[in-house]
Amino acid sequence: MKILVIEDEPKIASAIKKGLEIKGYVVDSVLDSDTGYSYAIDPTYDLIVLDRMLPGKYDGIALCKNLRDENVKTPIIMLTARGTIGDKVEGLNSGADDYLVKPFSFEELYARVRALLRRPKNTVGNVIKIADLTLNPISYQVTRDNQTINLTNKEFALLEYMMHHPNQVLTKDMIISHVWNEESDILVNTIEVYIGYLRNKIDRPFPELANLIETKRGFGYVLRSDN
Ligand code: CA
């Protein structure tokens, strides 16, 4: 899941980015509203953390209104130093989905991020289940046929993205834009390499079970729930 942080205080911005990255999210962080708007308009973000007071053409409220006017539906958590009822109402009226008053603990932000990220249909509690494969985004546990599978951070992020979109063709560009951030200089070949790693862990060790990852040559990859 890919998150955009628009926050002009570098210390806060980097603490949020690092915290979310440790939790396995892909994070882009920008420090002013003009850059923020040009990033936020990109529909590949799954969530935006938006500071209210920002340098640049817009403040957080105006930025949020403009995004909603442009029909960008990405969930937004607004951060602010002002915590009166009127401020909260103004923030929520501008189109923000949630509102967090500074100073806040990272745990609280993280809890709200998780609450806002839409759960896929095939979720039981926190666990996503596709065929006989399960993924727990809180404990980072992955199992197939009740056997634990150990994945690296990136493999986990890739599998989580695919499990949110089962039976859909995911192009390499879609995978790159949801699983890697803007700073990473990634080649499309790298996606093939990572898909290979995942196959070695979730399909190869289970020859008696149907393969879950399918290649649609010339298009991309599908995670099948209906084999
Ligand atoms: Ca600020």
Describe this structure in words.
The chain is α/β, with parallel strands linked by helices and about 230 residues long. It has helices at about 10-20, 35-40, 60-70, 85-95, 105-115, 155-165, 170-180, 190-200; strands at about 1-5, 25-30, 45-50, 75-80, 100, 125, 125-130, 135, 140-145, 145-150, 215, 220-225. The protein folds into two domains: about 1-115, Rossmann fold, CATH 3.40.50.2300; about 125-225, Orthogonal Bundle (Arc Repressor Mutant, subunit A), CATH 1.10.10.10. It has a five-stranded parallel β-sheet with strand order 2-1-3-4-5, with helices on both faces. It has a five-stranded antiparallel β-sheet with strand order 6-7-8-9-10, with helices on one face. A hairpin with a 2-residue loop joins β9 and β10 (about 145-150). The longest helix is centred in the C-terminal third of the chain and has 15 residues, at about 190-200. It starts with a strand and ends with a strand. The mean pLDDT is about 90.
Q: How is the topology of this model organized?
A:
Layout: E1 2-6, H1 10-22, E2 26-30, H2 33-40, E3 47-51, H3 60-69, E4 76-80, H4 85-93, E5 98-101, H5 106-116, E6 123-124, E7 127-130, E8 133-136, E9 141-144, E10 147-149, H6 153-164, H7 172-179, H8 188-202, E11 213-216, E12 220-223
Parallel strand pairs: 1-2, 1-3, 3-4, 4-5
Antiparallel strand pairs: 6-7, 7-8, 8-9, 9-10, 11-12
The structure holds calcium ion.
Calcium ion binds near residues 8, 9, 53 and 54.
